[in-house]
Amino acid sequence: MVRFLVLYPPPTDVEAFEKHYFEVHVPLAKRLPGLRRYTVSRNPARVRGPQPCYLMAELDWDDMDSLRRAFASPLGQETARDADKLAGWCPAIQSIIFELEEL
Amino acid sequence: MVRFLVLYPPPTDVEAFEKHYFEVHVPLAKRLPGLRRYTVSRNPARVRGPQPCYLMAELDWDDMDSLRRAFASPLGQETARDADKLAGWCPAIQSIIFELEEL
Fold first, then answer.
1. Closest residue of A to B40, CA-based?
2. Does the complex come out with an ipTM higher than 0.90?
3. d(C-alpha A3, C-alpha A102), whole Å
4. pLDDT, tens digit, 9 for 90 and up, residues A30-67
5. Helical H runs in A7-92?
6. How far is A2 from chain B (nearest CA, A)?
7. Can you give the pTM of this predicted structure?
8. CA-CA distance, B60 to B35, in Å (whole number)?
9. Chain A contacts of B7, Cβ < 8 Å?
């Protein structure tokens, strides 16, 4: 399984960010081809590290090829452009793609 | 489900970090009470954000109470002390606890 993790720092305008994220971004991203699971986490609690986190999202695909196909699709490109809008409220967004290895 | 995420930046001594992580830390953490799943990810690919990431770990529990009991247990405290050793090689470790909400 391959996961795309996004860490959103506290937005400059919480109300506008929330509205755009849940009313525009989520409906777009949920239609990405091959997406197996999409979870968000409100009020994440930082244990270590300097950067506060407001919202997290994790999107799962079966494998790296499926994720790449989703990101390269027209809908993937539209979702990426929409993520640029979210970055207007959260300039220090962190996002990472990683493959899960079960221990 | 509740998840504990750890992001390890590139360690100052990769060999010593790897040896300690996989030979000491993982066997300790795998025994934490109530742990449902423990995955690691080598070579995570950063999409956005300034901080490079060397290794990621995600540990899952059924709920926040189960995670809190695990962290408060003698083994949880031993694992936390051991994480301080890992922080010697990776001072800028980020870790976050969050509850998953399926979309």
1. A101
2. yes
3. 13
4. 999 999 999 999 989 999 887 789 999 999 999 999 99
5. 14-20, 26-30, 64-72, 74-89
6. 9
7. 0.94
8. 6
9. 49, 96
